[in-house]
C-alpha cells in the first residue's frame, strides 16, 4: 500500500465536496426537527432532488436551473409529507418511510432514459491569485459555489435560530406546541414552512450528488446519504455548528476509504465500502451512551399536533 | 370550513374500509400515471390486476403470485409485531440478506453430501443469521438507547456489502470460471426448495408464511405477549404497570422479525433465486413495510396485503413485457399506495365536519 499517494490538501478539499450533500440535507432536517417534526423521508427527498436536478440540468444545459428545480422537487415531496402529517395527522415515522419508498420509485421512473448521460457540471469559483495560494488556496478558495452556499446556510440557520424572533418561535413550536398554540402562534404553518425548507435543502443535496459529485444519474445513487444525514442531526444534538462538524467528519471518512481503496490497501473493498455505515452506527452508539444524550432533542419531536387535544 | 373532530374511539368501519379506499385511490392516480407514460390506462390496469389472475396465462401467473407473496408475508408478519409495539425495525432487507448468506453458507459447507437433513439445517442457520443481525440494533437499543431505526437501516448497507463479498469471494462457486455467484442451491437435491405441488408455486416458504400468519394471529389475540405488544403501542405507561419490560419487548419484536426475515431469505435463495449473487437483495424487506401497514398490522390482513402487493410485482412484470411500461412505475405505484393508506387513515381517528362548528 502506498500511503504517500494520498495528498492531505486534496484529501481535505475532496472531503468538503463529499460532505456537502449530507451537510445540506442535515442542516435542513435539523430545522425540521427543531420545529418538532421528524421527517424520515430525507432519503426520498434527496433522490427526488437528484433526478429533478439532473433532468433539468441536462434539458436546459444550466446546472443552476438544475439546482433550482431540485430544490422545488425536494420541497414538493416535503409538502406531501407535511400535508399528511400536519393536516391529516398521519404517523410521522410511517409517512417518512413512505416518502422514502415513493421517492426511490418515482426517481427511477423519472430517470428512465437519463442513465449514462453527462450533465453540465458547476465550475469552481476562480478567485485568481487567491485560488493559486499553496494549500489554503485549494482548500478555502477553490470550490464550486454550492459548497460556499452550504456553509452560508449553516451560518444562516445558526444565526436564525439563535438571534431572530422567527427562530425563537420555531424553537418554541418544537419544544411545546401546546404552549406555542396558546400564545397564538400558528403551529401548523410554522411546521409546514420548516418542512418545506428541509425538503428544499435535501433536494439541493441530492442535486449536488447527481450534478457535481458523481456527476451522473444512477438509480438509488443516494445510497443511504439521507439516512446518514438523519444520524448526523442526532450526532449534532440539534445544533447547527455541530451539524457542520458531523458532516465534515463523515465526509472525511468517505474520502479516506475511497483513497485507501485506490491506494490498494490490503483490506477487502467491501469492508471499506461498508465503513461509512459502520462508523455511523458506532457514532450513534457513542452519542446515545453519553449522559443525557437525548436531552437536547426538541421536547415535542415527532408528536402530532391537533388544536382540539 | 372543513374541520377534523377527534372520534371518541377509532372507527371500526373506517379501519376496515380505509385500505380498500386507499387501493382504489392508488389505482385511479396510477391510471393517470400510466396514461402520462403513454399507455392506455385501462389496458394497463387490466394487464396488472386482471390478467395475472383470470387471463390466458393465469396458470403461470398464479404460481408466481404465491412465490412473490410468501417472503413479503413472512417478513411483514414479523415487522407488524414491532410496529404495533413502537419498535421500528426498518432493516428487514438486511436481515433477509444475512439469513440467505448464513443458510447458504451452512449448506455449502456440507457440499456435496446427499442427505435430507441439510435443508432443515439451512433453514435453522438462516433463521439464526437473521436473528443475530436483528439483535445488533436490539442490543444497542436496550443497552445504550441507540435509535433502532437508523441502526437497522445502516445495517442493510453493511449486509449488501457482505453479500457482494460473499458472491465474489468466499461463497463463490469454485467450479465457475470468472462468474460471481455461489453454487446453484436449487439444483442440489439436499438444499433445494422445490415446488411442492406442480404449477402452484407452493414451496416451503409459502408453508412457513402460512404457519407464521396463524401463530402470529394466535399470539396477538390469545397470548399475554400479544396483549403486551398491543398495549405497548397504545399505552406504554400502562404496559409497564401490566408487567411488561420495555427492553424485553424490543428484543422480542426485533428477534421475531429477524428470524422470519432470515427464513424468507433462505427460502428465496434455495428456491426462486437459486444462488447467492450480487443482486440477490430484491427490496422485499422494504416492500414488506408497505405490506405490514396495508394489512393493518394484523396477520390476517397481511395475507391479503401480501397477495395484492405480489400482484403488483407479477402484473408489473407482465405490463413491462407486454406494454413496455417501465418496471420502476410499479415501485412508484407501491410507494403511492402507502401514502394514500396513511392519508385515508385520518378517517379512522377523526370525523370530518363541514361548516362552522363550535370553536374548541
UniProtKB/TrEMBL annotation, chain A:
Compartments reported by the entry? Cell membrane
- Keyword Protein biosynthesis in annotation: no
The record ties this protein, via InterPro entries, to: ABC_BtuC-like (IPR037294), ABC_transp_permease (IPR001851)
Top-rank taxon, per record: Bacteria
Looking up CDD domains in the UniProt record yields:
TM_PBP1_transp_TpRbsC_like
Broad class of the protein's primary localization:
membrane
List the GO cellular component terms: plasma membrane
Q: Which Gene3D superfamilies match?
A: ABC transporter involved in vitamin B12 uptake, BtuC
Q: Which UniProt keywords apply?
A: Cell membrane, Membrane, Transmembrane, Transmembrane helix
- Membrane-traversing stretches: 6-25, 37-58, 64-84, 96-115, 135-161, 193-211, 217-236, 243-261, 267-287
The record's GO molecular-function terms, alphabetically, read: transmembrane transporter activity
Report the membrane topology from the UniProt record: Multi-pass membrane protein
Name by which UniProt lists this protein: Urea ABC transporter, permease protein UrtB
**Which species is this UniProt entry from?**
Jannaschia seosinensis
UniProtKB/TrEMBL annotation, chain B:
Taxonomically, which superkingdom? Bacteria
Keywords, comma-separated and alphabetical: Cell membrane, Membrane, Transmembrane, Transmembrane helix
Positions of transmembrane segments: 68-87, 94-111, 117-140, 149-171, 201-220, 241-267, 328-347
Q: Which GO terms describe its molecular function?
A: transmembrane transporter activity
Localization, per the record, is:
Cell membrane
Which InterPro entries does the protein's record reference?
A: ABC_transp_permease
Q: How does it sit in the membrane?
A: Multi-pass membrane protein
One Pfam family in the UniProt entry: BPD_transp_2
What GO CC annotations are associated with the protein? plasma membrane
Q: What PANTHER family does UniProt report for this protein, alphabetically?
A: ABC TRANSPORTER, PERMEASE PROTEIN, GUANOSINE ABC TRANSPORTER PERMEASE PROTEIN NUPP
Q: Specify the protein name.
A: ABC-type uncharacterized transport system, permease component
**Source organism:** Jannaschia seosinensis
Amino acid at each position: 500500500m502506498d500511503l504517500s499517494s494520498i495528498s492531505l490538501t486534496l484529501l481535505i478539499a475532496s472531503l468538503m465536496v463529499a460532505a456537502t450533500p449530507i451537510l445540506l440535507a442535515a442542516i435542513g432536517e435539523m430545522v425540521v426537527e427543531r420545529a418538532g417534526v421528524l421527517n424520515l423521508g430525507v432519503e426520498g427527498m434527496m433522490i427526488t432532488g437528484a433526478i429533478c436536478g439532473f433532468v433539468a440540468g441536462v434539458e436546459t444545459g444550466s446546472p443552476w436551473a438544475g439546482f433550482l428545480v431540485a430544490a422545488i422537487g425536494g420541497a414538493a415531496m416535503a409538502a406531501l409529507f407535511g400535508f399528511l402529517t400536519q393536516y391529516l395527522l398521519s404517523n410521522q415515522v410511517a409517512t417518512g418511510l413512505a416518502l422514502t419508498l415513493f421517492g426511490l420509485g418515482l426517481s427511477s421512473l423519472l430517470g428512465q432514459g437519463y442513465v449514462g448521460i453527462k450533465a453540465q457540471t458547476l465550475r469552481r469559483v476562480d478567485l485568481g491569485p487567491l485560488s493559486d495560494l499553496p494549500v489554503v488556496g485549494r482548500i478555502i478558495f477553490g470550490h464550486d459555489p454550492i459548497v460556499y452556499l452550504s456553509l452560508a446556510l449553516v451560518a444562516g440557520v445558526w444565526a436564525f435560530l439563535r438571534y431572530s424572533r422567527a427562530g425563537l418561535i420555531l424553537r418554541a413550536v418544537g419544544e411545546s406546541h401546546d404552549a406555542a398554540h396558546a400564545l397564538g402562534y400558528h403551529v401548523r404553518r410554522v411546521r409546514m414552512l420548516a418542512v418545506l425548507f428541509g425538503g428544499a435543502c435535501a433536494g439541493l443535496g441530492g442535486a449536488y450528488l447527481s450534478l457535481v459529485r458523481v456527476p451522473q444519474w444512477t438509480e438509488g445513487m443516494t445510497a443511504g446519504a439521507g439516512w446518514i444525514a438523519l444520524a448526523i442531526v442526532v450526532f449534532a444534538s440539534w445544533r447547527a455548528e455541530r451539524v457542520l462538524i458531523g458532516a465534515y467528519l463523515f465526509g472525511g471518512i468517505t474520502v479516506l476509504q475511497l483513497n485507501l481503496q485506490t491506494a490498494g490497501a490490503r483490506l477487502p473493498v467491501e469492508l471499506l465500502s461498508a465503513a461509512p455505515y459502520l462508523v455511523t452506527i458506532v457514532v450513534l452508539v457513542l452519542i446515545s451512551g453519553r449522559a443525557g444524550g437525548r436531552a437536547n432533542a426538541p421536547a415535542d419531536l415527532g408528536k402530532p399536533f391537533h388544536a382540539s387535544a | 370550513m372543513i374541520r377534523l373532530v377527534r372520534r371518541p374511539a377509532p372507527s371500526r368501519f373506517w379501519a376496515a374500509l380505509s385500505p380498500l379506499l386507499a387501493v382504489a385511490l392508488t389505482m385511479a392516480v396510477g391510471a393517470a400515471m400510466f396514461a402520462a407514460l403513454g399507455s392506455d390506462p385501462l389496458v394497463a390496469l387490466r394487464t396488472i390486476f386482471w390478467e395475472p389472475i383470470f387471463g390466458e396465462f393465469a396458470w403461470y401467473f398464479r404460481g408466481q403470485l404465491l412465490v412473490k407473496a410468501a417472503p413479503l408475508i413472512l417478513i411483514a408478519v414479523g415487522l407488524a409485531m414491532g410496529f404495533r409495539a413502537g419498535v421500528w425495525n426498518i432493516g428487514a432487507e438486511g436481515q433477509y440478506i444475512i439469513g440467505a448468506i448464513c443458510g447458504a453458507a451452512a449448506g455449502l459447507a456440507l457440499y456435496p453430501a446427499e442427505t435430507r437433513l441439510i435443508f432443515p439445517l439451512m433453514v435453522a442457520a438462516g433463521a439464526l443469521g437473521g436473528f443475530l443481525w436483528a439483535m445488533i440494533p436490539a442490543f444497542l437499543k436496550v443497552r445504550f438507547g441507540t435509535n433502532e431505526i437508523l441502526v437497522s437501516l445502516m445495517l442493510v448497507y453493511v449486509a449488501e456489502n457482505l453479500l457482494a463479498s460473499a458472491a465474489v469471494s468466499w461463497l463463490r462457486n469454485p467450479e465457475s470460471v470468472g462468474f460471481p455467484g455461489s453454487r446453484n442451491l436449487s439444483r442440489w437435491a439436499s438444499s433445494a426448495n422445490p415446488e411442492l405441488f406442480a404449477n402452484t408455486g407452493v414451496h416451503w416458504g409459502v408453508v412457513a408464511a402460512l404457519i407464521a400468519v396463524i401463530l402470529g394471529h394466535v399470539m396477538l389475540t390469545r397470548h399475554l405477549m400479544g396483549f403486551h405488544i398491543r398495549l405497548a403501542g397504545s399505552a406504554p405507561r400502562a404496559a409497564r404497570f401490566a408487567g411488561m419490560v420495555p427492553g424485553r419487548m424490543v428484543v422480542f419484536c426485533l428477534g421475531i422479525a429477524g428470524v422470519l426475515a432470515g427464513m424468507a431469505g433462505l427460502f428465496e435463495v434455495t428456491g426462486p433465486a437459486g444462488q447467492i449473487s450480487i443482486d440477490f437483495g430484491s427490496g422485499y424487506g422494504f416492500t414488506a413495510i408497505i405490506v405490514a401497514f396495508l394489512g393493518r398490522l394484523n396477520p390476517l390482513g397481511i395475507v391479503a396485503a401480501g397477495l395484492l402487493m405480489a400482484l403488483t410485482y407479477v402484473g408489473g412484470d407482465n405490463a413491462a413485457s407486454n406494454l413496455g411500461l417501465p418496471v420502476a412505475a410499479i415501485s412508484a405505484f407501491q410507494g403511492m399506495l402507502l401514502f394514500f393508506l396513511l392519508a385515508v387513515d385520518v378517517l379512522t381517528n377523526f370525523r370530518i365536519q363541514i361548516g362552522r362548528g363550535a370553536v374548541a
